[in-house]
Fold:
Amino acid sequence: MYTINKDSKHLFLRLSNFFEYDSVEETKKSFAKNGYIWILKTGRKPSNEFLDDVINSNGGIILSNSSRKNKKYYYCKLDTYNPRNEKIVYPSYYDEYLQYENYSFNETIKNETWLKISSFIELTENEAEQFLTIKSNRKITECIQSRAVYMYLYCNNILKVKEK
Structure:
């Protein structure tokens, strides 16, 4: 059982599938194998200030797949971001992704945002509805049509979530 505090800050990330890979499932598999995982956020970055707020409020990341059907949400505890001297364990498809995007691993360490997560818990629809956008107070489940790859959230209630 994991407790998510009321008003804690969270980052919503929508993971797009990469070719035949289901990004969320691949991330979940790598997490199960290692007990933690680093995920890479390329492009427009969340602010370090907000990521610090997430960590300081004992918040996390809400991950979702990019599918409009069978939408699932996952709570992932954010431990830290932008590694310094840590071993980075990441989903296996990242090697192909980095090559496809013409990124070197070292470039991503310098220029992109890496997020280390230490839990991976599927949320029920009711649990997911407790996460609201900071900007508009809309339930994250109502923002499915949004094209935003990430959003800043807060939790509207104290939640006790179970690993399934």
Notes: Helices lie at 23-34, 48-56, 94-100, 105-111, 125-128.
